[in-house]
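User: Need the bound-state model for nicotinamide-adenine-dinucleotide:
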Amino acid sequence: MRLTIVGTGYVGLVTGACLADTGNDVVGTDKDPEKIDALRQGECPIFEPGLAELLNTNVKTGRLRFTTDLAEAIRHGEVIFIAVGTPPLGDGSTDLTAVHAVADAIADHIEGPKIVAIKSTVPVGTGDAFEERINRRSKHRVCVVSNPEFLKEGTAIGDFLKPDRVVIGAEDPSAAAVIKELHEPFVRNQRPMFIMSRSAAEMTKYAANAYLSTRISFINQIASICDRLGINVNEVRSGMGSDARIGFHFLYPGAGYGGSCFPKDVQALVHIAQRAGVEADLLHSVHQVNQRQREVLFHKIVARFGESLTGVCFAIWGVAFKPKTDDIREAPAVVLIEKLLEAGATVRAHDPAALDNLRRQFGDRLTYHESNYEVLDGADALAIVTEWNEFRSPSFDEIERRLRHPILFDGRNLYSLEAMRTRRFEYYSIGRPAVNGAPSA
Ligand code: NAD
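Assistant: Bound-state model below.
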């Protein structure tokens, strides 16, 4: 089938590459000419495991190509997938400028009936409004389907190729059937495809992200209470998560959730609820708890080193919002670095994939290091914010040799308290008693 992908970011590129890989004829377009230029030269503009290889293979066969010519791209696809950004506005509601711009372009350029599948996360009712907007402006009929995307950065290819489920929201059964057929190759392991109303599909995406965020904020709140009571939250987590009704997934205490989805989607759902006359106080609290949680490491640092951090140097391990991505949008590490710099500290940062993005944001306000050991040289303490695999079993001798003091702030509870005690590290983690340090820190 001839397909168009509008927006070649994390979602659009993965969608385009995976759909080309099953034999479709895919054209990707984006308003960012540099991105399209890079893609045409065979470069992958983002770090996502397996994506560069998949793009390459499919570009070589001619099943996948890229253009900045939006009109040409729109004319190409029998189905047009929308994967443009839907960032938050200042009040937390959703900025739909890009979605509206694409709707108008579709209305202006189509030369026959089309199916438009919205992959972007959009407020309930957007699909209805989108369809009406195009059909008012164009003489050709467009059917809009909500097809929310559940992939996770870092494992996006695997998630797309083997989704837990596919959600298709459509008012027109024949349009739903086309989107279902496109996904058949990915659900051969009998995973379900749910066909529902367009609004229910839009709501499903928010409900799923809000629930996962709620679990994270829940365990982080429990961790804060444990912290004050001198209890190890990991023991509580074991006892609690073993209940078959609860489980362990998304129940990891840490430095808070980030990324371009959870923070914005929780706030957007608060707005959707308010517009519907519902006070979403639970979701509001989930967001508030997370805002505080992203500052927890900083407060532990201040409790240890004092309010003014002038002359104090910190090494940071991990700045991406989670492992296996280069994405630093809303990353807890960005919040920590900003606060450390404000308090007068100097910062040396290391991340296996996200340093270029960090450099674009912070310029020469800090230094950037490719080696996770070299970054420690001369630093007064190490703060770990993202749980990249390579940080799980480091050489503690090397860490101790390079740091000025063996002080570790661990925002992801990577090490056992016993191991830190034995190695005589001063160690502060999340919801667990400090080791060899001040209990209040
Ligand atoms: P992104 O910022 O990586 O990519 C969006 C792309 O859209 C950019 O390349 C941008 O240049 C392009 N764009 C913006 N306006 C455009 C326009 N008018 N015409 C053409 N291109 C335009 O964003 P993303 O992370 O891929 O997310 C896209 C959508 O998918 C969002 O709604 C997001 O909430 C949702 N989503 C994201 C993820 C994720 O893990 N990143 C997962 C599921 C859903």
